[in-house]
Amino acid sequence: MKTALGIPIEYYLWLCAILFTIGVLGVLYRRNAIIIFMCIELMLNAVNLLLVAFSNYYNDPSGQVFVFFIMAVAAAEVAVGLAILIMMYRNTKTIDIDILNKLKW
Amino acid sequence: MTLNVFYFLSFFGIICALLVVFSKNPVYSVLYLILTFFAIAGHYILLNAQFLAAVHVIVYAGAIMVLFLYVIMLLNLNQESEPHKSTFLKFAAAICGGLLLIIFVGALKGTELMGPQHQDSADMGLVKSVGRVLFSDYLLPFEVSSVLLLASMVGAVMLGKSEKTNDSK
Asked: How many pairs of residues across A and B have Cβ atoms under 8 Å apart?
């Protein structure tokens, strides 16, 4: 039950669960759209870390390739998302997400 | 020794992640998130994924966070213009986060890992082995991700383009 350098794999499970929860907490807690984006990055990174830990545990490089693809998708997501944020700021002069309530029923 | 390094990186990363959520100024949040990413890069090095550690520092700390900083400076955000939720909603958010953590702990506690035990190989995370898998088994997703990056670049330019230049034509 240990990775290559002798750290139990459960420790990585707990660490990634805590990091992911902090990301979810940030999405729920803040109203600033940029901080919400950053918390989404934090969640993606928690999952990446767990993928790398299991890739090391099973000695299989496929997990690291998945992390590589997640990084590419995250970069694309951030570029488009920040462009949307800038457009939203240009139209409403704020980045408070409570402005965006037109889809509420 | 490695366990101590693990504990240090973990607590450093968790504290910085909490400061991302709770610091008032968005610029400080970005800087703390960069520190969190460095802690995660340290974890990658501990896990023999040296190539991913380098890519992580370059892509996240180098490119993505600079993009965030630029947007924050472009929009001129600071402590006074920061929107705040009501105390009730903050309390509800904290309870929801805590419940999610409890669910994770309950689901993961006592799980048995299946599969073969690993053999030690220090060069698993180097460019050679990762690149061999990336360009043989995952060649098609690699090409598709290049199309994705192109599409996101075009999309970002289209979205960020000022609408006044459209009208003046």
From this structure: 230
